[in-house]
Amino acid sequence: MAYQIALPPNLANLHDVFHVSQLRKHMVDSSNIIALDDIQLKENLIFEVPPISITNRTTKHLRENEIPLVKVIWNRTIGDATWELEEKIRELYQDILNTS
């Protein structure tokens, strides 16, 4: 069983049919309001969230290999942070590593 959802015109490029298992009852919560102007979707419907800061560094040791990792803060308000390969972050966001 599926439902077709009426989407606003600026989201017309998204698929508008959802299976009932993906739908939940709407609970009003003013902290979950997202300004649509703040989200910049690419043509392939991917959006990029730039990192805010680097808070920690470590090295993972695997037998003969050492893998440098950095803890990246993506969103301070919800505490969204992940451990990423330092090389990958250096490649994508050179300026964030220079300031930390």
TrEMBL record:
Residues 1-26 form the Tf2-1-like SH3-like domain. Pfam families: SH3_Tf2-1. InterPro entries: SH3_Tf2-1. This is Uncharacterized protein LOC101497728.
